Amino acid sequence: MVPFRKMHGLGNDFVVLDARAGALPVTPARAAAIADRHFGIGCDQFIIMEKPPPGADVFMRIRNPDGSEAGACGNATRCIASLVAEEAGKDRVVVRTIAGDLPVERLPGGLWRADMGPARLRWDDVPLARKVDTLHVPLSLGPVSGPAACSMGNPHATFFVEDLDAIPVAELGPKLERDPIFPDRANIGFAQVLSPAHIRLVIWERGAGLTLACGSGACATVVNAARRGLTGRRATVSLPGGDLVIEWREADGHVLMTGPVATAFSGTLDLGAYGA
């Protein structure tokens, strides 16, 4: 029996296991089974806290509900940072992922701000399948076309639309995620710019589908909107689960994400009940 926490950032929810004291037998298939909302605990991402490497306070391993490994998850980063910070009595910690180090700091009002690192804008950084302009990717499907793309440790493409409510996100998302232009698949954002400092966003997440919030997707959306001159470098992003404040820092190109964290419940699970 293994202890777990169910946490979320704006409804983007996670099953969190702590493997810092020793490795746990969590295979991709087992993670997918636990993430299943009908036969498991259910989550958007499955998170394992691992022993911190030098220079970091914790290593965070991320798996999508299909068992595939993800490089970044902004909402999970804040959640894990809050746990480690509370344990250590610190206001600033560094979370390491396979995509790099993410410093996170406590702010007043129960908020946490994560430095998600620099946005990567080259076509081969996203990555895309061929050399194209990442500000206007030659891709269209139904009512959407010409997304902007970047990497926030994972691939993102943002379609800017006039009326978000008119877009059949659940129909378009899975097809666009797997378009050949994205060799590693991609997170697909559908964004409506409400003002130069406010964006409404729905994300179809790679390997997860529709989620109530996506931190790295919100970061990518502000970067892509600012690159197109649609917003400034700081904006509130309203997702179905709530708001994140994103700032694309001019000095070094890093993207800062501010939002809340929450623990829904905790318990224990039998890993052996979820296959091999």
UniProtKB/TrEMBL annotation:
Catalytic activity of the protein: (2S,6S)-2,6-diaminopimelate = meso-2,6-diaminopimelate
Family annotation (PROSITE patterns): DAP_EPIMERASE
Key words, A-Z: Amino-acid biosynthesis, Cytoplasm, Isomerase, Lysine biosynthesis
InterPro entries referenced in this protein's UniProt entry, alphabetically: DAP_epimerase_AS, DAP_epimerase_DapF
Pfam families, per the entry: DAP_epimerase
Enzyme class: isomerase
An example molecular function term from Gene Ontology annotations: diaminopimelate epimerase activity
Site for Could be important to modulate the pK values of the two catalytic cysteine residues, residues: H156, E205
Xref: Gene3D superfamilies: Diaminopimelate Epimerase, Chain A, domain 1 (3.10.310.10)
Superkingdom per UniProt: Bacteria
Oxidoreductase as UniProt keyword: no
GO biological process assignments: lysine biosynthetic process via diaminopimelate
Active site annotation, chain numbering: C73, C214
GO cellular component: cytosol
EC identifiers of the protein: 5.1.1.7
The keyword Iron-sulfur is annotated on this UniProt entry: no
Positions bound to substrate: N12, Q45, N64, G74, N75, N154, N187, E205, R206, G215, S216
Entry function: Catalyzes the stereoinversion of LL-2,6-diaminopimelate (L,L-DAP) to meso-diaminopimelate (meso-DAP), a precursor of L-lysine and an essential component of the bacterial peptidoglycan.
Similarity section: Belongs to the diaminopimelate epimerase family.
Record note on quaternary structure: Homodimer.
Record protein name field: Diaminopimelate epimerase
Organism of this sequence: Neoroseomonas soli
Lineage, highest ranks first: Bacteria, Pseudomonadati, Pseudomonadota, Alphaproteobacteria, Acetobacterales
Gene: dapF
